[in-house]
Specification:
This protein has 335 residues and is of the alpha/beta class. The protein contains 13 helices and 10 strands. One of its GO terms (molecular function) is N-acetylneuraminate synthase activity.
């Protein structure tokens, strides 16, 4: 499921619904229209994941324009479990896959109970041993984001996830800054993850624009995750670093174009260009009128289009031979 011929594109709605299920429905519609494979949300109980003493991240203060506790900010973005049942059904009716990242034990149990296809672990949980142990008991495919992580962090998490049942696991290279500066992306780290862990890899992107996810696919990403929003001007921590509907649609189209362009890696004339070979290549022709019996030389031969005659690669095989007939200027030489 996690390793297929085309990249799995996850449209990350996250909490950009601002706690309003009607906006969540609209986000699903946008993901469907863009051609994404999955639409993904975030499932959590604020009281179970955030202390009332936790402060907001710098980017959260900047993006929301508010300075409140992290608990207060996140609580306003929470949706009840029953909302996700409705959203999953809505997504299925729209023929798009449904995913959500669980942030606590109750959310893990809930998402497993509604039979989501894939469990997506957010970067912040990669060092949460009890959380990882609970997920390791599931038999569903797992996607693990690796933002803020060292190689040892990832190895330790993989050991836990693989400790119980055999399952598919994919790793997403990620930078957990919103937006991520281009000089901090380090796309080549995705290649290192693939070589180190021998699992499908992808990229969870928080940069502005669509260039980096497209480049990731060209480098071999099996999965792309990208935040999107209905309106970048909405109040909330992630809207400003998200794509709008048109950008999401363009990203999906560009990724699919790049996948076609990657090809099979075998260098040979393609079916679309074969017809142009004779037009673009050249042949050995008469530079002047050549009399029968005259010796072919650099003075009476030239190389010109079209390429239907003797290839210029046989130039030295032609030089010095006697002409068997009269050739007019520009006529292709025959031996």
């Amino acid at each position: 499921m996690l390793n297929r011929n085309s990249a799995i594109i996850i449209a990350e709605a996250g909490d950009n619904h601002n706690g309003d299920i009607e906006l969540a429905y609209k986000l699903i519609d946008v993901a469907v229209d863009a051609g994404a494979d999955y639409v993904k949300f975030q499932t959590f109980r604020t009281e179970d994941i955030i202390s009332k003493h936790a402060t907001m991240a710098e980017y959260q203060i900047k993006n929301t324009g508010k300075k409140e506790s992290q608990f207060e900010m996140i609580k306003k973005l929470e949706l009840p479990f029953e909302s996700f049942i409705k959203l999953k059904k809505y997504a299925e009716n729209k023929n798009i896959g449904f995913m959500s990242s669980p942030f606590d034990f109750k959310s893990i149990d809930f998402l497993a109970s509604i039979e989501v296809d894939i469990i997506k672990i957010p970067s912040g949980e990669i060092t949460n041993l009890p959380y990882l142990e609970k997920i390791s008991l599931l038999t569903k495919p797992i996607i693990l984001s690796t933002g803020m992580s060292s190689l040892d962090d990832i190895k330790n998490a993989m050991d836990v996830l693989n400790s119980n049942s055999s399952k598919e696991i994919a790793l997403l290279h990620c930078n957990t800054e919103y937006p991520t500066p281009y000089d901090d992306v380090n796309l080549n780290a995705m290649i290192m993850l693939k070589n180190t862990f021998n699992v499908p890899v992808g990229y969870s992107d928080h940069t502005l624009g669509i260039e980096i996810p497209i480049a990731a696919v060209a480098l071999g990403a099996s999965i792309i995750e990208k935040h999107f929003t209905l309106d970048k001007k909405m109040v909330g921590p992630d809207h400003k670093a998200s794509l709008n509907s048109m950008e999401l649609k363009k990203m999906v189209k560009c990724i699919r174009n790049i996948e076609q362009a990657m090809g099979d890696g075998i260098k040979c004339p393609s079916k679309s260009e074969i017809k142009n070979i004779n037009i673009a290549r050249k042949s050995i022709v008469a530079a002047t009128d050549i009399q029968k019996g005259e010796i072919f030389s650099k003075d009476n031969l030239a190389i010109k289009r079209p390429g239907q005659g003797i290839s210029p690669m046989k130039w030295y095989e032609v030089l010095g031979k006697n002409s068997k007939k009269f050739f007019k200027k520009d006529e292709m030489i025959e031996l």
